[in-house]
Design goal:
Elements lengths: L11 H22 L4 H25 L1 H8 L1 H5 L18 H7 L5
Length: 107
């Protein structure tokens, strides 16, 4: 288990440390992909692809209500993969009208 700072911490050094830890975690998986054993490489690629697919499906499931608010129930039901973003906790919070202006791809 690795414990580190939040990626949106108040102090720049804390934020950079968090990113460094996240990048290090990623690099551990990349080194396994560089294995000289082709079967191990294939197995690792499949595991990573499955992990990301499952992650996307979980995010879509958690965001289903928001998707319905943005796209309507019928269109939202057709969405399989979603990437979620969060408005920063610092500064002002945009209202629905401003979010539509900032993200014009929402109908």
């Amino acid at each position: 288990m690795v414990i580190t700072h939040r990626p949106n911490d108040y102090h720049p050094d804390h934020r950079y440390t968090s990113v460094l830890v996240q990048d290090s975690d990623y690099m551990v998986t990349v080194l396994e992909l560089l294995s000289s054993d082709p079967e191990r490489q294939k197995s690792r690629w499949r595991a990573i692809r499955e992990r990301f697919t499952n992650r996307q499906l979980e995010i879509t499931s958690r965001c289903r209500k928001s998707l319905e608010e943005c796209y309507g129930a019928k269109r939202a039901a057709q969405i399989v993969y979603t990437e979620a973003f969060e408005v920063g906790e610092y500064g002002r919070r945009p209202d629905a009208t401003e979010l539509k202006r900032l993200f014009p791809f929402f109908d």
